[in-house]
Design brief:
- It is built from three helices and ten strands; from the N terminus they run αβαβββββββαββ.
- Strands 1-2-3-5-6-7-8-10 form an eight-stranded antiparallel beta barrel.
- A hairpin with a 2-residue loop joins strand 2 and strand 3.
- The longest helix has 20 residues.
Length: about 220
């Protein structure tokens, strides 16, 4: 909670300082149709030396907008380096996580530099994890694949730094349905250990506005 307050306080100070710097900005500005932005939440947390386990940034690191359309992309991958567990078995963990959302956004100017935005996204996620354990007598692979899709209404706030740059944050509510497949494979004891489990799942998730995006307009 303290970390969240620190990020909000920093965001507020940044907005106030930017207001004075760009107070003389011309009133007539070109209406840009395309925006590209980066999620700078991890940079802010590192700069403030915050505990990254306390505040979890969203998986989306790139946002692209054109008129009322918007797209978010996120990709995380682990190269699968070997490590030794507590029993000196050799384990190799490889995982990939891909996140995507696309939707429509409506904006309302509430002040000279403040913009309120809201809309609806279609969200999708695919995750793959494979844990390979090599013991003295066997090699066991545990593989998990999961995917989900759903809808996510959102609302947020944007602050214009100048006619090209702005920062934004938003909250969203995810309603999704998906399927997960878990598979265990043994090189030696296949008859006893090999199995596949498939399950369906549904969830809802409320994400507060703790992510910060830096947006460039052109």
């Amino acid at each position: 909670m303290k970390n969240a307050i620190l990020i909000i306080a920093l965001f507020g100070c940044f907005i106030l300082s930017s207001s004075f710097v760009y107070a003389q900005e011309e009133a007539s500005e070109k209406a840009y149709k395309t925006e590209v932005g980066l999620n700078v939440s991890n940079f802010v947390k590192s700069f403030l030396s915050l505990n990254t386990q306390t505040i979890q940034a969203s998986p989306y690191f790139v946002v692209v907008k054109h008129k009322s359309l918007r797209f978010h992309l996120g990709l995380q991958a682990n190269d699968g380096q070997n490590f030794f567990d507590d029993t000196n078995n050799i384990s190799n963990n490889r995982n990939i996580l891909f996140d995507f959302k696309a939707g429509f956004e409506r904006r309302e100017m509430v002040a000279k530099k403040w913009i309120f935005h809201y809309g609806l996204d279609l969200v999708g996620n695919y995750g793959y994890n494979r844990l390979t354990t090599i013991t003295a007598i066997d090699q066991i692979k545990n593989t998990t694949e999961a995917a989900y899709a759903g809808l996510s209404p959102f609302l947020g706030l944007q602050f214009k730094i100048n006619h090209r740059l702005k920062v934004l944050t938003e909250a969203n509510w995810v309603i999704a349905y998906g399927r997960s497949t878990e598979k265990t494979e043994s090189a030696v004891f296949a008859d006893d250990l090999n199995q596949t489990n498939i399950s369906n799942f549904a969830f809802t998730e409320l994400n507060p506005p703790i992510d910060l995006y830096l947006i460039f307009q052109f």
